[in-house]
Structure formats: structure tokens, C-alpha cells
Specification:
It is a single chain. This protein is of the alpha/beta class. Helix 9 links the parallel strand 8 and strand 9. The chain starts with a helix and ends with a helix.
């Protein structure tokens, strides 16, 4: 049983005339009759009784009418929903993003997307950078925003911009008078950073190891927001991605660039190949690239 046969049957049941039903369906009467016959053959019995003058529904035909109406309604609803999805008039996407990016930069792209596609729902999962990669890889989300992974991934990476790490200090810290800081100056004070495993911690450790600078950690935390708060409370100093600058400043910390060694890492979108993305996710990818180009 297919949808064309269902439509043909309902047209005959509604008009009780093969001529009228054929006209309604834009079919010839032989084609309509063949469609009804195929439907009856598929179901295993007669749905209509015909004489030279009259047409009537069999009991099985009577029983099929409400079922066919429901099937046709469901089909039309499904067809309309898919058309709306392809036209970006319906749908939902979820983005996994680093908390610091989700809190500071991502809202701008979401607003730009919503301005163009107001009917698409957007949900945000703010998770650690490494978790972003896992969620995309496990098909939990279509798009993830993270630092470019150090290790090979079986996914695409679309760079958005390069993020340079900065130092954050308590407002009354002695180093706040300087316009640029060295790592030697920073590490003379209690250092606060993220707990392992963390891509931010890994980047810091690799850069300092390469520069032959010893890293001594006084405190570590799970989230960059916590690190910023600990700094603003005067517990020590920290080095964080520049995308945390707005949040750190709002918490009362002072931000300064680092002269040497400099740590920079590309931030971008991690996803499956573009051809595997939904229409809504592909449109969001375009908006993200345009927003942060």
C-alpha cells in the first residue's frame, strides 16, 4: 500500500464516482481503476463493489476510510515538516562549546543566526574542551566549538580565530602596573590553573616545558570561571585564553598580555564532514565562520 493508492481510494470513497475521483486526482479512469485494484490486491480483498450504475464500499472499505484519512494526514504532516526543515523554518540544533566561549562570544553568533532563522531552536551545552570533541564524535551534538585538538581527529575543523593567552591578576597586584608580563614575573606568585585533564593546562605546560620554565601550581580548579574568581579574590595569578577577558574583568581581575613565551591556539568548529550535517547545522556553521572571521 502506498500513498498514491490511499489518495485514490479516498477520492473514490468521497465522490462515489470513478469519473469525479479521476478528475480530482488528475488521472485517467483506467489509471485510477488500476490503482484501486493494486490496493485491493495488496490488502487481499475488495474495498469497493461496482455495478454499471453504482459504487459502494464493502465493510472492509468502510473500515479503511478512517485509517486512510489518518495515514494521509500523517503523511501530509510529515511532508510539510520536512519541507519546513529544508527551508529552515523548523528544527533544533545543539552546540557544545567551551564555557568561556559560550559565556562571552557565542551569544553574538546565536543572535545573528536567530535574526535570519528565527524558527530554528538553538541549545547550548557548555562543557570542557576535550568533552566537546567527545560529544561531536559520539553524535551527541552536530557542532562543537573548541581549541584545535593536538591529536588527530576523524572530523573536520573549521578555524574561527586565533586566541592568545593572557595573564589575569587581582586588582591590587604589584604586576598590575606593568603593561606586559613575562612568565618569570608571573610565576613568582601563587599560580592558579585548571585541573588535569584540560587542554588549557596542557597548552601551558607544553609551552613552558619548551621554554625550559618550571611550572609550580598553587591552586587548580575545574572551570575557568572558578579560576577567574579565585584570582579576583586575591588568591594568586593565572594565565587563561583571551576569550576569558570579559568575564575576568567583570569579576574584578586585571588582564595583561604575556610577552614571552607567547601561547596561542586556534579556536574553531569541530564537526562531521559538511555533507553529513543537517541543513540547520550547516547554516549555523556558516554563521559562526562569518561572525568571527
Amino acid at each position: 500500500m502506498n500513498i498514491k493508492q490511499v489518495r485514490a481510494f479516498l477520492a473514490v470513497a468521497q465522490t462515489m464516482s470513478f469519473a469525479s475521483a479521476a478528475n480530482m486526482m488528475h488521472l485517467s479512469q483506467p489509471a485510477l481503476s488500476l490503482s484501486i485494484k493494486n490496493l485491493e490486491d495488496n490488502l487481499g480483498g475488495k474495498l469497493l463493489t461496482r455495478t454499471t450504475r453504482t459504487i459502494a464500499l464493502t465493510p472492509e472499505g468502510e473500515a479503511l476510510v478512517p485509517i486512510a484519512k489518518r495515514l494521509l494526514t500523517q503523511w501530509e504532516n510529515a511532508e510539510e515538516e520536512m519541507k519546513q526543515r529544508f527551508a529552515l523554518q523548523l528544527g533544533k540544533i545543539t552546540i557544545a562549546a567551551m564555557p568561556s566561549f559560550a559565556a562571552s562570544l557565542l551569544p553574538k553568533a546565536i543572535r545573528n543566526y536567530h535574526d535570519v532563522y528565527p524558527d530554528i531552536q538553538v541549545a547550548i551545552d557548555d562543557v570542557l574542551s576535550d568533552t566537546v570533541v567527545e560529544m561531536v564524535s559520539n553524535n551527541q551534538v552536530e557542532l562543537g566549538i573548541s581549541f584545535e585538538p593536538y591529536y588527530p581527529i576523524d572530523m573536520a575543523f573549521y578555524p574561527l580565530y586565533e586566541d592568545k593567552f593572557i595573564a589575569i591578576l587581582p586588582a591590587d597586584h604589584p604586576l598590575a602596573e606593568k603593561q606586559s608580563l613575562t612568565w618569570q614575573a608571573i610565576l613568582a606568585y601563587d599560580f592558579i590553573t585548571l585541573q588535569r585533564p584540560s587542554s588549557v593546562r596542557t597548552m601551558i605546560e607544553r609551552a613552558l616545558q619548551k621554554a625550559e620554565i618550571e611550572l609550580s601550581v598553587a591552586f587548580d580548579a575545574h572551570q575557568l570561571t572558578t579560576v577567574s574568581r579565585m584570582v579576583s579574590e586575591g588568591m594568586g595569578v593565572a594565565v587563561v585564553p583571551a576569550l576569558c577577558q570579559q568575564q575576568a574583568t567583570e569579576q574584578g581581575a586585571i588582564c595583561r598580555p604575556i610577552a614571552s613565551p607567547e601561547i596561542a591556539r586556534r579556536v574553531g568548529v569541530i564537526c562531521k564532514p559538511r555533507s553529513n550535517l543537517s541543513i540547520a547545522a550547516a547554516a549555523m556553521l556558516d554563521v559562526l565562520i562569518e561572525t568571527y572571521a
